[in-house]
Specification:
With about 180 residues, this protein is α+β, with helices and mostly antiparallel strands. Helix content is about 30%, strand content about 15%. It has a 5-stranded antiparallel β-sheet with strand order 1-2-3-5-4.
């Protein structure tokens, strides 16, 4: 009968498994997907916080940009009107114009900061369309790289993010034109 080996002895010993150590994600896993439920609308609450705590990278007159708390990729931004509306056709012309302008600036900043190769941009309107926070309009801006797509998120239901949210927020906010 073989002796059970101590797992600590395996540290730094290469094997066939590829391990992605992302301990900062434990805070989100522990909180669960409904971290903002019960505490009101997260997009109404964010502007009342300081930029770092609210993950805000830019504040405009009618809309603002902030990092997604549960990002698909590093630098995943959301653009939201300050007003609590659920659908795009409820936005005023001024809100629509500023959401568009912030989106264009965000793309330029993300290309500069993260050297991304492309973007996924979109809005999920309503629960059946996949909106996580359906009661407050928000547009996703997800930077993409030629090498970021693989089957890991599909098979393992895991996404490795190489940067902490605070570091990403600071880099984007610092690069945002005044």
């Amino acid at each position: 009968m073989s002796e059970i080996e101590d797992a600590a002895a395996f540290a730094a010993v290469p094997d066939e498994f590829q391990r992605l150590w992302t301990p900062h994600r434990m805070a989100y896993i522990a909180a669960g997907a409904d971290v903002n439920r019960g505490s009101g609308c997260p997009f109404c609450a964010a502007p009342g916080k300081d930029d770092e705590t609210g993950l805000i990278v830019h504040r405009g007159e009618h809309a603002f940009a902030l990092l997604n708390l549960f990002p698909y990729n590093s630098g995943h931004l959301l653009v939201c009107p300050y007003r609590h509306i659920g659908l795009y056709d409820e936005a005023t012309p001024a809100e629509v114009a500023e959401i568009s302008a912030i989106t264009q600036t965000a793309m330029r900043v993300l290309r500069q900061v993260s050297r991304c190769d492309g973007f996924n941009i979109g809005m999920n309107q309503g629960h059946v369309a996949g909106a996580g926070v359906e009661e407050h309009l928000h547009q996703h801006i997800v930077p993409r790289w030629g090498s970021d797509a693989n089957f890991f998120p599909i098979i393992a239901k895991t996404k490795a993010l190489p940067q902490l949210l605070g570091d990403v927020r600071r880099a984007i906010a610092d690069a945002w034109p005044v």
